Amino acid sequence: MSKSISIFDTTLRDGTQGEGVSLSADDKVKIAKKLDALGVHYIEGGIPGSNSKDIEFFKRVQELRLTSKITAFGSTRRKGSVAEQDANLKRILESGVQAATLVGKSWDFHVHTALQTTLEENLSMIYDSIAFLKQKGLEVIFDAEHFFDGYKNNPEYAVAVLSKAREAGADWLVMCDTNGGSLPHEISQIVTSLQGPLPGANLGIHTHNDCELAVANTLSAVQAGVRHVQGTMNGYGERCGNANLCSIIPNLQLKLGYECIGEENLRTLTNTARYISEIANVNMPVNQPYVGNAAFAHKGGIHVSAILRDSRTYEHIEPEKVGNKQRVLVSELAGQSNVVSKAQDMGIALDPASEQSKHIIGKIKELEHEGYQFEGADASLELLLREASGELKELFTFESFKMLVEKAAGQPVVSEAFVKVNVAGESIYTAAEGNGPVNALDNALRKALVQYFPTLKEMHLADYKVRVLDDKDATAAKVRVLIESKNFENSWNTVGVSSNVIEASWEALVDSMRYALLGQISPEHVHAAEKRQGLVNH
């Protein structure tokens, strides 16, 4: 039996049904690129034609030429209709995808109650829809909704549904625990029972986490013969969420010996999970297995003493295998090791025994206590380390800024920013408008600097996220602002924290431009700028 597992990610569809998860078309494109880099085999993008965001996503994703197969989701034809004339099936074809996921009823209770049709008509709906898409050249993944509940109530009909989908040409027959109420032993027994009526069938599993068993149920299904696994990153999804691929993939690959994604791809799992968390603007639990910030964290006492000798004493895998890292809390020595390692990754020479090193470690701890988080803001961290090591040459310094926000009756809000910075000993004062305070600040700061540093024309702000750190303080709470910036070659993230969202945004904004100038503007550029100051209109 093959040990290869097909990984199907539905973060962009099923994941967005989770409370608090809302993704723009741009967010979905970013996540799709990240999932493709991770190496998942299928990326379910959404429901074509259901909303403008999904329409834009399916159009834009075709231009990316991803390795992963983009799939569109839809239901079988309506009762009493013809597949060729079904609007939902037509939209799937128009989306330009390589594969389609069709959902159909497999629980007789749902057929009678939800669809209000006969069991025979439901089978025809399934057959006609799959056969139509197969005739059009699409790969078809059939999701048998409520399969396990249906099997428990009427096993003959549940099996008949899968058999009919197989007869129509479905490439994968996916059994869904839609209500999330099944237990691992039930999943295993039911999957095993299908080997008789469906020999050699390509079976898949799709579970929900209502009993906190989605991952366990998925593993049970795989061990019983399933070779296609559906889930979401970080377990996003309706109600209690979907099966968490961040746990499923390493469990299958590292614990059970199945082939899911490449070994090197697995090392990017933590980065992918945290990136998607930031894009979705949803807090990732620190204790999330494998990819959480505390997944390999140790705090004091016997544990720390032991893992410093051999990490296997209190770690079930090497954290690096999933791209995570060991963290020792309340340990100055371990803190030095972590910071020095990070500095080395950035090409910064930092002596762990020096006072300079101790100072920067203390500074980082102090900032993290205030609410800064550098996990998703490597650019701000690098600036901090370079400043501490004496390698950072400040090409401009901040003097002041002012904001004007005006709202007149019946008119849109107008934001205007006034910024004063110092370049090469000269004060520069500029003003600019924007469609919001942060955009106005960005425009004013860029206007002040671009005349001296033309490369700033190549960068732009790609994303902006605000997270409340402690909601008990209501509108006076501290916020953390994360800004993603891009130029033609790279992207980088910076962070700012304050009880004032404008100040936090300004910190992140300034860091984004300071980072953009690293290694791009030499002192000679500044000297040349000084020479032409007389020609510059301040």
UniProtKB/TrEMBL annotation:
**Enzyme Commission code(s) on record:** 2.3.3.21
The terms under GO molecular function for this entry are: (R)-citramalate synthase activity; 2-isopropylmalate synthase activity
Instruction: List, in alphabetical order, the GO biological process terms annotated in this UniProt record.
Output: isoleucine biosynthetic process; L-leucine biosynthetic process
Presence of the UniProt keyword Acyltransferase in the record:
yes
Tell me the route in metabolism or biology where this protein functions: Amino-acid biosynthesis; L-isoleucine biosynthesis; 2-oxobutanoate from pyruvate: step 1/3
**Keywords for this entry?**
Acyltransferase, Amino-acid biosynthesis, Branched-chain amino acid biosynthesis, Isoleucine biosynthesis, Transferase
According to UniProt, the reaction catalysed is: pyruvate + acetyl-CoA + H2O = (3R)-citramalate + CoA + H(+)
Family matches, as InterPro entries: 2-isopropylmalate_synth_dimer (IPR013709), AIPM/Hcit_synth_CS (IPR002034), Aldolase_TIM (IPR013785), Citramal_synthase (IPR005675), LeuA/HCS_post-cat (IPR054691), LeuA_allosteric_dom_sf (IPR036230), PYR_CT (IPR000891)
Q: Where is the Pyruvate carboxyltransferase domain?
A: 5-267
Tell me the CDD domains matching this sequence: DRE_TIM_LeuA3
Q: Specify the domain of life of the species encoding this protein.
A: Bacteria
Answer whether the UniProt record assigns the keyword Metal-binding to this protein: no
Enzyme class at the top of the EC tree = transferase
Record-stated family: Belongs to the alpha-IPM synthase/homocitrate synthase family.
Q: What PANTHER family does UniProt report for this protein, alphabetically?
A: (R)-CITRAMALATE SYNTHASE, ALPHA-IPM SYNTHASE/HOMOCITRATE SYNTHASE
Q: What is this protein called?
A: Citramalate synthase
Organism of this sequence: Paenibacillus lactis 154
